[in-house]
Amino acid sequence: MKRRFKPRTALAALAVLASACPPLHAAEHITLRNGFELDCIRRVPSGDRVRLYLIPTAASTQPADANYIEVLATSVLRVETIPDPTPTPAALAPAVAAPTPTQPAALTPSEIHQLLARAGALHNIDADLVASVVQAESGGNARAVSRAGAQGLMQLMPGTASLLNVRDSFAPEQNIGGGTAYLDALLTRYNDNIALALAAYNAGPAAVDRYRGIPPYAETRAYVARVIREFNRRKRAAAPAPTQLAAK
Known about the structure:
Layout: E1 28-32, E2 37-46, E3 49-54, E4 69-72, E5 76-81, H1 109-123, H2 127-138, H3 158-163, H4 172-189, H5 194-203, H6 205-211, H7 218-238
Antiparallel strand pairs: 1-2, 1-5, 2-3, 3-4
Helix pairs in contact: 1-2, 1-4, 2-7, 4-5, 5-6, 5-7
């Protein structure tokens, strides 16, 4: 496959989910040099890198210390303290209607291709790999919802979407942007080992770390094989010479 020729100085790992932190640390809004923004509750220097522990959400199910976002210290552009919200008495709080998901307009294959190409270029990931994940996750259905509650084209869990600043998982551009950023983070975390990144996308990075490889889950192993098979199919269809993706 097309390698991700991204200098490590430009990489911003975006590993998913949150970690609990001591309550004395104020939350911070981090802006990275690649334009990505996120909120964290704690920063821990580690050599030339810094680990960002994200604000935990109710949807987070991973162990507190197993998940973090590690980026190069030089990739942090700006750090801003998030002020504590001012409590509003319930009696004075205005009534707010519950938000309803945006009903996306039907996209043409060309428009979907453009979204995939744009997201892939932003993160130096082959657009065919992102497209293969979309196919395996939702079959291209922007309104897809799994039994576990994952939503949209790349099946983002609500907690994950929130951490990725995806406000509407049913909006194709937001969903693809967030899902590709997450995939980028996993590829960075596993040194561009595509099979491990895909396994972590499906089962979570904590499971991959626990088993030090693809977890022995039938669903996860089938998922990794399905994505790689779809990727190879796309490459064969696009070029006379077949491109095979070796996965351990």
